[in-house]
């Protein structure tokens, strides 16, 4: 029962996260789009009636990293490699990082990110995060930090 509630809460938060990050304005100095997000011509340019490929909606890097982190938390709990309390702690820190203060300064983002990393480190040391989940979560936390520009 608690697993179902946690999974539902994570799914709802992920949806809210994606919505919030997609509706935020992009920074003025946004990096150029990757080849995967650029428009591609249709496979057969000689046939004028063939539709052009539509750009796929892609998540901003921070949203994609946060989504991966939430997904790994869910999988880790289901596999027994992440305790429910550890997942809740990391999820709470992620929410603080992403939603507490819109328009946070770089210093505030660094501080919130550091708290997420400390929560992960503490839970991993206590044995609440183990196995492949420990590796995957650390990777996703690092990617989130890079996407946010956290030090």
Describe this structure in words.
This protein is mainly α. The chain has a domain at 58-151. It has helices spanning 2-23, 61-79, 84-99, 106-125, 131-148. Helix 1 packs antiparallel against helix 2 and helix 3 packs antiparallel against helix 4. Residues 5-10 and 20-48 have low confidence and may be disordered.
List the helices and strands and how they pair.
Layout: H1 2-23, H2 61-79, H3 84-99, H4 106-125, H5 131-148
What general outline do the C-alpha atoms trace? globular
The main pleated sheet reads as: none
Number of helices: 5
H-E string:
HHHHH
Q: Bin the strand percentage.
A: under 5%
Beta strand count? 0
Helix content: 55-70%
What's the average pLDDT? 75
Give the class from helix and strand content and strand pairing.
mainly alpha
Rg from Cα: 18 Å
Cα distance, first to last residue? 38 Å
Unreliable segments of 5+ consecutive residues: 5-10, 20-48
Write a short abstract of this structure.
Helices cover 63% and strands 0% of the residues.
Question: Which labels suit this protein?
Answer:
mainly alpha
């Amino acid at each position: 029962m608690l697993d179902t509630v946690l999974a539902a809460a994570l799914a709802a938060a992920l949806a809210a996260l994606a919505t919030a990050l997609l509706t935020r304005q992009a920074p003025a100095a946004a990096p150029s789009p990757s080849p995967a997000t650029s428009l591609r011509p249709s496979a057969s340019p000689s046939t004028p009636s063939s539709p052009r490929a539509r750009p796929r909606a892609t998540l901003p890097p921070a949203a994609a990293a946060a989504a991966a982190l939430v997904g790994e938390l869910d999988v880790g709990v289901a596999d027994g490699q992440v305790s429910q309390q550890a997942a809740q702690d990391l999820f709470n820190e992620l929410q603080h990082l992403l939603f507490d203060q819109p328009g946070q300064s770089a210093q505030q983002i660094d501080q919130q990110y550091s708290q997420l990393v400390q929560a992960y480190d503490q839970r991993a040391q206590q044995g609440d995060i183990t196995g492949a989940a420990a590796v995957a979560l650390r990777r996703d936390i690092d990617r989130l930090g890079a996407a946010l520009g956290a030090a």
